[in-house]
Predict the 3D structure of the following.
Amino acid sequence: MVRVSDCLPALARAVSLAGVIMLVAAPVSAQTSEPDTPTAAATTPQAAEPAGAAPAAKPDKKAAAPAKVLFGAAKTPAPLAARAIGNYARGCLAGAQQLAIDGPAWQAMRLSRNRNWGHPRLIALLERFAADVRANDGWPGLLVGDISQPRGGPMLTGHASHQIGLDADIWLTPMPDRRLTEKEREDLSATTMLAEGGLAVNPQVWTAQHVRILRRAASYGEVERVLVHPAIKKAMCEATAGEKDRAWLGKLRPIWGHHFHFHIRIACPPGVAGCVAQAPIPGDDGCGKELEDWYKLLTAPPKPRGPPKPEPPPITLAGLPADCRAVLEAPAKN
């Protein structure tokens, strides 16, 4: 099955969560603007309300606002019980925990995004994973990319998923043996694992340690999916061809991109109401027809360019689970 996700940069103006919301910019590819002249609705005289009539309800501007602007403005977590609400691409996160910027075997990257927040269950897994790969797999430590925003939800830039605190991006570049500066964490580029042409891994950068850390990621029971480029999936299938136990390979899901980093997705925590699980993965190792179908897509001739498709409207607060409003409006701890 082909799963496609993520990405389009966006620009947005400041948002006040307590009062009036002013929206000026959308993604460049889908730019919209306020009209320069008053609309007909603004200029048409309104009939007087009959005496004694109840005042008309004010429109809920927040409900109609792009959720990415509202959640992108939240700088602190909702001080509520930890809960992943909704699904991976349409939801929010209560009670988020922050991954420390530096740990014994990890460093968080792109700090200006403030996306090193996740469900406590995911944060605990990342800390365990970092320690395991350093102790057992010859990997010096993890460079951790985006996890989620402090209150989850849609992001201003990138990622259709990462909304409920159960997704994390891990660089395929090993952690250096020194503490990176804040500037380096913003500017340092990850290394692609692909050879020229994009159909195979590059043996100059792809190593046995990469095989081990991806196997390790898939070994944890709470991990449901590890998203990787099809060429990386193919390399993993080839590297483990002689093994009898290959069921874990089924967790490695091929998808576009994901050759600079891999994406860990854990299951909904047990007993959490309102967390929407994904369909189970197929029961095989994924090294047969599924991978062949991906390579047909990768090698297919490009299709003629048609007219550009209109951008879908942004997800609004009203389009998220009802509990996400309470998450958004919960006051920050002093």
